[in-house]
Amino acid sequence: MNPARKRKIRLAVALGAAICLAAVLVYTSFSASSEAAQPSELREGRSYDLTGKVVNDSIARRGDELRFRIRDREGTASVPVVYTGVVPDPFREGREVIVSGELRNGTFLAERDSLVTKCPSKFTEDKQSS
Amino acid sequence: MAGVGSACLTIGLFTALYAAGASVYGAVSGRGQWVTSGRRAVYCLAALCVGAFAILEAAFLRSDLSYALVAEASSTDTPTFYKFTAVWATQDGSLLLWATLLSLFASAVLFLTRRSLRDIAPWATAVLACVAGFFLFLMVGWENPFDTLAVVPEEGAGLNPLLRHPAMMIHPPMLYTGYVGFSIPFAFAIGALIARRTGADWIRATRRFALIAWTFLGTGILLGALWSYSELGWGGYWAWDPVENASLMPWLVGTAFLHSIMVQEKRGMLKVWNVSLICATFTLALLGTFLVRSGILDSIHAFGASTIGVQMLIFIACVIALSAGLILARLADLRSSARLDSLLSREAFFLLNNLVLVGLCLVVLWGTFFPLISEALTGTEETVGPPWFNRIVTPLALVLVLLTGIGPVLAWRRVTPKRLLRIVAVPAALAVLAAVVLLAFTDAGDSVPSLLMFAFVAFVLGVVGQEFVRGASARRVMTRESWPRALARLAGRNRRRYGGYLVHAGIAVLFLGVAASSAFIEQRDVRLSPGETMRVGDYEVTYREATARLGGDGGGTGAPISFGAVMDVRRGDQSFTLHPSRNYYSTGDPSKGAISRFFEGEATSEVDVRWGLRRDFWLAVRPDLISLEGPIARADRQFGDSPGRVQAFVIGTLAELYREDPPPAAFRAIVSPLVAWIWIGGAIAVLGALVAAWPSPEARLRRVRSLYAARVGRELTRA
Amino acid sequence: MEYGLALLALAALIALVVTVPLRRGDQEERQDQTRIEELRAAKEAKYREIRDAELDHRMGKVSREDWRAVDRDLRDEAIEILRELDRLEGTPPEPGARTPS
Fold first, then answer.
1. What is the pTM of this model?
2. B531-546 per-position pLDDT tens digit
3. Which of B8, B11, B203, B421 to mutate to test the interface with C (most CBs of C within 10 A)?
4. What are the CB-based long-range contacts (under 8 Å, 24+) for B288-296?
């Protein structure tokens, strides 16, 4: 096999592998992904990664359960959330959070340990920190 | 002094513009004085940035609250170490740090190459000056660190308590040094393309900078992981968070670059690949800097909309356009001068390793930007989480570790299959032995990827050990040295190679820790009252008593209140005590009561970890303040206007109340095997990088002599 | 105002420093010197390659014939570099002389 042909074969193999990887990437990511939504976009019957801000004065703890409300980042639509599991350190009212779960009968039932709280802004225009 | 600092930045911007202009003019017209002038301008720029940085630090250290930045990120009661490091916890300060590091590195490389690379250096100067100028432009135009407040506040906001951890404060300078370091080879690559000097000269001049950058970036990433593990309350070290990914991507591509430049140096191949790779590395470094500062991706760290997002995006687009355009325009100059002889050669395997690393980077890129991609393609914003990342990355990581074992075994150009088999026989046997032993005596077989990883790590360590031993014995045949001396001289005379082997060993050990701690972790979340016991793994954990401290926490972060627990842990005949706690920082929020202010601010988990070589025992507590809510509310009403001393006394009483009769607290206990080896592996890799980067004495001696000879020649001309 | 004064002072200082080479009218080192530096670096790299190849052979990765071939090529390349170095360094420096590089 002459060198030029060898090189062409190698190139073809490399390209083939790249296409395989790309296909795997695309397929697995779309099938494993979960939809991100804000409270106003929620619909019953499917699971979401709910994002939004914790409503002031809405946090209540009862034993293992944590209840609070999340509202749209820019807006007033809010939804009550029931959560169990580890609560991240930065979790407070007014902070942006992401929690996975499902909306049922108007209440968002969260998956255990799925609460993620954004670290408070270091780099925003708002120079005021609480 | 704020005015002086601000003036430094403004003049710095113009100096940078001059440096770029003078260098370009000097390069185009062939008039060397302008190039020298441009170089001097870069030195001046470094001086200006360092001066500005010093002024800013001085303001922080003396808590000068007239500076907006000091009021925002520091306070009079912040511990001194965190006052010093708070500078780069802010947007403006971190931009200044970037610019300062860049101008210092640029000065260093331009000084070292002032007599060589005459065609390339001016263009490289221009590129570096433009990048520095861009950061100065951002500061002067939008984010000036020297803004002062008309009304000086009484107290600053203080450093975010989550950041009050040594690792977290060293993390940004490390990352920035990494990003900045990669801009040096980038600038010289651009220069090489423009000047059409696409040989290995630009690589030789900037290789060390690339290695140093890679080391700092890697260390920064590990420090971030260490912080996450030992400071945050979830007990993990990597969450595939966009900000973590943003620093990982340039590191992956930078690793590929470090390998592929060796191929260009030795064989003159992969020229297009190398310039593309370094442009990609630098672009990703800018992207990493940018991602942290924009709201473009939702994540635990990505902050809200910022004032400089658009400008950075435009700058990144320009860098991509310039790089792509230049590479395409100079494709003819980038033709390889050699061909791949055999697949069983170092060149081929370096190329393979490059493909795996770039593949990994693309996977991380895809997953990180998936919300945007899915929104563009399907209209709904979707995210992928750690399970997806782990699933896709694991096989690639396995291949990568295997390659780190095969690479050192090969030689340039060609190794015959028979020879190769003979060389890998012992390490391969070691790997099989390790797998068999683990299968027989542990439950490592429960996780196939982990078992494979353990075997591959054994293979890599076997290969590295063998390389050292066989190399030393080859030396001893000629020199009759003792073993230790032979080993030392072997490494000393072949620093790049043996330093590199050490890095491979370190990375393998790191992956050992990652595999073991991901697959065999045991975790439990339980609520306990004093006296109760929980079991996790082989451990028994008893909640002995509650603790309450005021006015000073163990970590030196300046927390006013600290509630915690004393936990007795037992495993067989081994027992120890842990003291996890939770620090409560006060908030300046005026809507909160005077006493509840102390409990409603930030709170951080002060985790207690018993480090061990075989496993870590990690414990965090989340006290329940529910029994204190009533008393706090009453205290707010009664003592809201009382003087500070009375309030302190009240809080002391509340603390006692908690200690004597605490409600059940939530505990999380994690047993992670072999986590310590992640940090140890990282340290070994850094050591290896140091060895590889260390200048060799012979080259240094000869350089000095040649400088004298050059001076003689110059002086003869003038006379 | 502090800012304005500092602006003027720094601008003057920087201008002074960066124009030194322009005013001095320094006759920059000849093109040759750059080339010599680069050749020296290339020579070091070539020596390292020769040593690496020898080490590879002594550790058994390459057969004697393969090594001999590679070693010969590398030494030829080193000789080329040395030849050009001698050519550039050997002749006494002449002002204004330009050599093709």
1. 0.89
2. 899 999 889 999 998 8
3. B11
4. B288/B175, B288/B179, B288/B246, B288/B247, B288/B249, B288/B250, B289/B98, B289/B176, B289/B179, B290/B316, B291/B242, B291/B243, B291/B246, B292/A123, B292/B243, B292/B246, B293/A123, B293/B91, B296/B372
